[in-house]
Each structure stands twice: as C-alpha cells, then as structure tokens.
Amino acid sequence: MRVVFAGTPTPAATALQALLDSHHDVVAVLTRPDAPRGRGRRLYPSPVAELAEAHDIPAIKTSTLKDESVIDSLAEYKPDCIPVVAYGALVPPNVLTLPRWGWVNLHFSLLPRWRGAAPVQRAIEAGDKETGVTVFRIEEGLDTGDIFASAPADIRDDDTAGSLMERLTDQGAQVLVDTLDAIENGSATPTPQSDDGATYAKKISTEDTRIDWNKPASAVDQAIRAVTPDPGAWTLLEDDRIRIGAVRPITDPRDPIEKSLSLAPGEIAWKKNRAWVGTADYPVQLGSVQAPGKKMMEAGAWVRGAHLANGLDNDKSAHNKSAQNNPAERDESYNDTPHEGTRFQ
C-alpha cells in the first residue's frame, strides 16, 4: 500500500519506523514545520522529519492543510491511505477523500473515552486504571470516526505520562500496521463509534500544571504524574516557580517521622534527605525538585541548598545548633522531629 504518513513528535516517529519495517510503501511524510528548541532557539526538524530524511523520504512541512499547494503535493503522491499519529493539525473535509482508503488515526486511549488532544495525561489525572490505543477512520467530528481496532493497556500506580506513553507508543505502532494490513487485504471491519461514555481530553494548559495542594494526596499525585516529565508540574515558593517531580502519598505511615507529620496544605516538612508536603488529607513525600536556574535534583539535595525557614521547628533547631559544642545540652528528643513551616503556594 502506498502511504503518506502524517505525524510530528517522537511517538509518531516510532509508528513511522514500524511502517518502514513493514511491506507498506511510505512515499512521503506530512509533518509540522521546523521548530525552535534549546537556549539558542535554533530551528530543528520534527522527529518524524528527521527519520524521513534518514530514509530519503520527502517531507511536506506545514502547519495547515488548507493551503492548496499542500493539497496538490499530497495528491501528487497518490496515496492509498494516510495514517496519522499526533500530526497536530485538523484535516479539512475536502482533503479527507484524497486517499482512496481515507485517513486513519492512531489515538492513545480507548475511544470514546478521552477524545481530544491529551488522552494520556487526562487518563492519569482522572485516576483511570485502564487505557489503550485505538485506530479509527478520521471524519469531520473530533475523534468520532469508525473504529478499526483497539487494544487495552493497564495504567500502573506509578505511571507518569512519559512511561505510559512509551508503552502505548510501541503497542500502538503495531496496531496501526496491522490495521493497514487489514485495510489492504479487505479484512478490515470498521464499527461505528458510540457516544456513550465519551469524555474530552482538553489540551494541557500552564494553569493545569500548577499543583493545587488543597486537593487530596491521591489527586495531587495523579495531577503531577499526568504532566511528568513534560511539561512538568509546578508550584510557588514565595515568588519562585518550583518544578516538582513525581511524589509518594503517605497513606499508611509506618515510619516514625512520617507517622508524626501533621501538615497544612502546601506546608513543607523536611528531615535530612527527605521532604514532605501537606495536602487536603495525607502528606506526600517529594521525589525530585527543580528550582529556577537549576537542574532537577533529589528533594533532599534541594532542601539542603534552599535555606528554608524552619518555621514550627525554629526553637528546636536553634537549641540543637547552640548545643553542638556541648553535648550535655542537646535534647535527643529533637532527633526525629522534621522541620516544618515553609509553604508552597
């Protein structure tokens, strides 16, 4: 089958590689224009464009499919089908009929759940235990077309958007190839997609990635994992924007220190190499933290370098500091008491 592949990011490149390894003939790719990256803001091709170039496959780089010259270029390749994986632009109705077998899309959810731009992130954020991949025929509606194939996948308790997407990408690439095989040999049996149970996965905004410490620990955990590693969850410490990596809810504290924690939402406690933050119910233990102008680091290292006010433990810390040269004055009952008081906003 002659195909023009449409896609842009790394997951799309994985699917493209699977097609290149199959018997299908990828005659061109459709991808977004080169985009700035890094501190120098140099223009770089998309992962799909890079892979296409490595295989001497022509790339049509465009941010819109409404341009007549782009439509003419697509028509010149006479594709039988155009598979799409995260291309990043809508397909106008007049272009949908260009390939004889239409456009098919690999979507990273079990449709009709999580139609839209951020299905992986919204599934984790919602606390779903299962998701998957779906290949469907693109029509005028948003992710509403007939379904060719789907495959389920578990969402693990420690999954981030990154780890889950990695598994779905590999799974989805094979489902996409199998679907094109079935379309080509006539065994494909697309079924109409129901609207029952449909949900919308809206695009992740900057405000979506700000942590709300007034929510329960489970919701804070899910919200952070949903945007890890990109674009990343953040919070404020005074005027500094602090990026927070995955956390661990302390729902069944057995450690003596964690058992004694009683923190208000956003309140930070720390002891040696560990740090915790209060939520609406249980505290969470911080895993990694990134301060402005710094690299992501372990929470303990961040605490040691952040010079946080000791808050509720000021008097104890001062007492122990003054007793460093006189062990007889040191109250050993302070040893297991975490410093508390500073708050994330």
From TrEMBL:
A single Gene Ontology CC term: cytosol
Domain Formyl transferase N-terminal: 1-180
Top-level division of the source organism's lineage: Bacteria
Summary of the function given for this chain in its UniProt record: Attaches a formyl group to the free amino group of methionyl-tRNA(fMet). The formyl group appears to play a dual role in the initiator identity of N-formylmethionyl-tRNA by promoting its recognition by IF2 and preventing the misappropriation of this tRNA by the elongation apparatus.
Disordered as annotated region, ranges: 310-345
Compositionally skewed regions (Basic and acidic residues) per UniProt: 328-345
Alphabetized CDD domains for the sequence: FMT_core_Met-tRNA-FMT_N, Met_tRNA_FMT_C
InterPro entries hit by this protein: Fmt (IPR005794), Formyl_trans_C (IPR005793), Formyl_transf_N (IPR002376), Formyl_transf_N_sf (IPR036477), Formyl_transferase-like_C_sf (IPR011034), Met-tRNA-FMT_C (IPR044135), Met-tRNA-FMT_N (IPR041711)
Family that this chain belongs to: Belongs to the Fmt family.
Name of the molecule in the record: Methionyl-tRNA formyltransferase
Record's keyword terms, sorted: Protein biosynthesis, Transferase
The keyword Acetylation belongs to this UniProt entry's keyword annotation: no
E.C. code: 2.1.2.9
GO MF entries: methionyl-tRNA formyltransferase activity
Residues annotated for (6S)-5,6,7,8-tetrahydrofolate binding in this entry: 109-112
Entry keyword Protein biosynthesis: yes
Residues covered by the Formyl transferase C-terminal domain: 203-306
Stored PANTHER family: METHIONYL-TRNA FORMYLTRANSFERASE, METHIONYL-TRNA FORMYLTRANSFERASE, MITOCHONDRIAL
Reaction(s) catalysed by this chain's protein: L-methionyl-tRNA(fMet) + (6R)-10-formyltetrahydrofolate = N-formyl-L-methionyl-tRNA(fMet) + (6S)-5,6,7,8-tetrahydrofolate + H(+)
